[in-house]
Amino acid sequence: MPTRAALQRILPRRGVAVSRETPGTWRRAGAAMASEPMLASGLLLLLLVGLFAMLGPLVINTELAQIGAAPPRQRPGAEHWLGTDVQGRDIFAALVLATPQTLKIGLFAGVMGLGLGCILGLLAGYFGGWTDTVVRTLADVVMTIPGIAVLVLVATNVRSMTVALMAVIVAGLAWMYPTRTIRAQTLSMRERPYVDIARLNGMGGLQLVFTEIFPNLLPYIAASFVTAVSSAMLATIGLEALGLGPQNEFTLGMMIFWAQYYGAILRNLWWWWLPPVAMMALIFIALLLTSTGMDRLVNRRLRVEA
Amino acid sequence: MTLLVAFLAITINFLIPRAMPGDPIEQQLSQLSATSGGNVGDIQAMVKAYRERFGLDKPLWRQYLNYLSDVARGDWGYSLTNYPERVSDVLRAGLPWTLALLGTATLLSFSIGTLLGGLLAWPGSSRWVHVLGVPVILLSAVPYFILGILLMFAFALSFPLLPVAGGYPFGFTPAWNWATVGYMALHAVLPAMSIILASIGTWAIAMRGMVISVRGEDYILLAEAKGLSARRVFLAYGLRNALLPQLTHLALTLSHIVSGAILVEVIFAYPGIGYRLYQAIHAKDYFVIQGIVLLLSVSIAFTMLLMDLLYPLIDPRIRPGRQNK
Known about the structure:
The complex is a heterodimer of chains A (306) and B (325).
Chain A: H1 2-10, H2 25-35, H3 37-59, H4 91-127, H5 129-144, H6 147-156, H7 163-171, H8 176-189, H9 193-200, H10 205-216, H11 218-241, H12 252-261, H13 270-305
Helix pairs in contact in A: 3-4, 3-13, 4-5, 4-7, 4-8, 4-10, 4-11, 4-12, 4-13, 5-8, 7-11, 8-11, 11-12, 11-13, 12-13
Chain B: H1 2-19, H2 24-36, H3 40-53, H4 60-72, H5 87-121, H6 127-139, H7 144-158, H8 178-215, H9 218-225, H10 230-255, H11 262-267, H12 273-283, H13 286-314
Helix pairs in contact in B: 1-13, 2-3, 5-8, 5-10, 5-13, 6-8, 7-8, 8-10, 9-10, 10-13, 12-13
């Protein structure tokens, strides 16, 4: 019955229930979690990874991650939970050291890229004119040049790589996407009545951008933060797996690089490469769930408000 | 825009190595002499000779102009590790492998992902589609090469159905014949699978969003009211109209085809551009690294130009000169 199905489609869909009283922040957060299971499970997974990264080094003896600290090529067992590699490093201890480092690079590069993107996007969107033209062209051009190419070029020409330097390099290519998103949103915010009122009250320029427009963009900024962290981490791991990472420090990407370098996959030492691979897959899936859930939450709230 | 991108890419490629502390030639030579036991006096003379040979003793702007003209003439220098071999030869040897692998994988994952995304958004599609959708979308979060490691472990080591690595069997010389094509296809299955499985989800998510927005359009309502079959409405009215942004996305992805899966090639030792980049990084072969990086940027600028020229063929609305009639 085509007509009936069609009729059902044009019936207004039910939005989210908007409660009349304003409940407390925690209650509202709880309700948001309950309505977006994706966001809730993503955040839960991230929390678990974060706990592992923070508490792990306090509980586990990280000395075991040094070369020769344990007999080489041990299978997982009671002594070494995830076995040891060919150089006698305990895999579990290495994982405990590597996870916080990788998270640190991702967070740091994400914050820097997003911060730069926010400033550029706000300025371009609010002031328009040639500021906008310059920022937009710059973002478009840098976006087109493959990030991995520039990263490889910089990383090959650096004397010795460290975790901090890695974060800075990756952040240098993480600002374009936030810039574009924030710019587009600023453009639409600029025309809202409350901005006009602020302008009529004599507020102008930068003060207006940062006190009136910026706070209203926070939901978007939160959503693009997750994406920024995730892509920064992806770029980092890519560089590390190519052998351009910090050679003397533990990160998940370097663990994979060394495993690949010593042929762990071909020699069937699965306990060597599987833990970092699994940890990374877990982090990326958690970030995807979080960002998708956040996106849906933000968009739905906007739809209800409109 | 295309020219601006190409120009900027070449400039970055010129400036970054020169802005970094340390002299690659001196470094390279002192490393060579450390391994072969030369004395230090020779090195200083050699460095000077090499500087003159590569024009590094000239002022920066002359070097830049020289570099621009060299690049434009296709002279990208020599490989440092396999000396007589030119950088352009290295690129020419790797490019067909990469294009074959990435081209096939991208087109396959685009077709499957787009269809899946459309079905996910369409009311009345089978329950299996939704069951299938969840793992596919989760896989899209995982980097290609991680999936590659898992697939290699499963299908080349645990159950040795497919070759582990490489592009052809050991001791085989590739030539333009069917045997080569067969080996290439066999060795490309696992790398291609890891790209396809990891990218179907991205296509599906995008397509799902588009079909949902198309679903509420009046022409769908009209098509249903006319009593057309559900399949016809889905394919000819829903999918077709939602496809355009997907095609733009496809063109963009195709422009990243050379840089797309460097790490998959590394994991599978697949003899494309990515694996050669990895080898060059290990051997500190600066000119090959620079050449590959340049190729990545220029190929994107080039495909963007191609896309601009082809777009009117796909979308009749932006065909030039139409509004004049």
